Amino acid sequence: MGRLSMAADSVLILGGGIIGLSCALEAAGLGFQVTVVEEGEFGGQATGAAAGMLAPLSENPDGADPFFRLCWDSFLRYPEWVRQIEELSGQQVELCASGSLNAVFHEADWLPMQTRLQWQRPYCAQMEWLDETQLRKLEPNLSQRAIGALYCPAESHVYAPKLAVAVEEACRRAGVRLVSHAGPLSKLEVTKTSGVSVTMGDGQAWRADRLVVCTGAWSGWLQEWIPINVPVHPIRGQICAYDAGLGEVRHMVFSSQAYWVRKNDGTIVCGASEDVAGFDRSVTAHGIERLTRWSGRVFPCLQGELPVRTWAGIRPATLDGRPLIGEVPDCPDVIVAAGHYRNGILLSPVTASMIGQLLLGKSDSQSSAFSLERFNRMTVMGGSR
Fold first, then answer.
1. CA distance 268 to 249
2. How far apart are CA 332 and CA 336, in angstroms?
3. 119-139: burial string, b at 16+ Cβ within 10 Å, e else
4. Structural domains in the chain?
5. What letter does residue 309 receive in the DSSP assignment?
6. Mind listing the pLDDT tens digit of every residue in the chain (385 residues)?
7. Predicted TM-score of the model (pTM)
8. Helix (H, G, I), strand (E, B) or coil at 351
9. Exposed e or buried b for every residue in 252-261, given b needs 16+ CB within 10 A?
């Protein structure tokens, strides 16, 4: 075993994606001594592959359930959260208030959009239905096949790679210890008297009073060390990007099959094809072909054009589509923040806040809907394993 590290009121966070880094920054701000241990590079998995959409209304069409309210809460926190990160890190994350268009191409889809408009307008008073003429003025390059769109001027996006770098730097300046390339977890021990200790693949061992598991799609490994059900599984998401010089895209544009958003790096990002492929991050011709086919249908200026870049990320999905945020039942020294699926970027501020409250021994009204107890109704742990 390598060197053992521990500090009073210490928090160890496993996983250096956007969720882990956000939780680390929150914990440091609350006065905890924080260490983040990452198997590879910070922001190197789902975070770096994300399109950075902040679109709780566009991506939650069915109703104001607890998950939507969690997304909306986080969305409202975003401007101030970004301001603090940029101020602390000295870096920009490219928060862009582009607004969104949910385009409709078939008459049968008109009524569902009107239903959405009714329940979503109380959250965004500026939301409105655009007819064909109004839509052409806002998004001239959109296909003439579009018969209208639901317009939400409030929704926005960030450049996910820059956000990850900025939060990492903010953590560093806040006194968080950052350990990358530690290798995979090789041992986890939880005791009632001496906290939590982990040993990584590089032989280094770490001990702390509390452990926060933020390892995304890989979080199911917790079941190997603690008898707890952590139903997180990987979903591959494939994305491509076009040269923005091919045609202007002014808003985030959603269809029933894909989305498009222009980034400041001069590309139009189109995503995301989804499939079950384990932890395989390779890009497939079939996955990208689906995106390029729909790109040409929705934006004729992209018809027949090849993307300048393609990539894939592994998203952490749960059985019910909601994240896991809470203490491990009967093992409160271990907290899980995982399973955010498509919404890790969006949910970072609210997840960090919830984890901070748990570290302080508090909870909020939202926590019960996302706790691990919904998959673990029985008492499962009486000590270390």
1. 7
2. 10
3. ebeebbeebebbeeeebeeeb
4. 4-49+161-231+320-374 (3.50.50.60), 99-155+234-318 (3.30.9.10)
5. E
6. 233 444 449 999 999 999 999 999 999 999 999 999 999 999 877 777 888 999 999 999 999 999 999 999 999 999 999 999 999 999 999 999 999 999 999 999 999 999 999 999 999 999 999 999 999 999 999 999 999 999 999 999 999 999 999 999 999 999 999 999 999 999 999 987 778 999 999 999 999 999 999 999 999 999 999 888 999 999 999 999 999 999 999 999 999 999 999 999 999 999 988 999 999 999 999 999 999 999 999 999 999 999 999 999 999 999 999 999 999 988 889 999 999 999 999 999 999 999 999 999 987 767 789 999 888 864 443 333 3
7. 0.93
8. helix
9. bbbbeebbbb
Q: How far is CA 141 from the centre of its chain?
A: 29
Whether 340 contacts 47, CB under 8 Å:
no
Task: With both helix axes pointing from N to C terminus, report the angle between 66-89 and 348-359 in degrees, rounded to the nearest 10.
Answer: 90
- Which residue type occupies 339? G
Work out the burial of residue 75: count CB atoms within 10 Å of its CB; fewer than 13 is exposed, 13-18 middle, 19 or more buried.
Answer: buried
Nearest CA to 93 out of 283, 264, 303 is that of 264
Closest CA to 366 of 69, 60, 120: 69
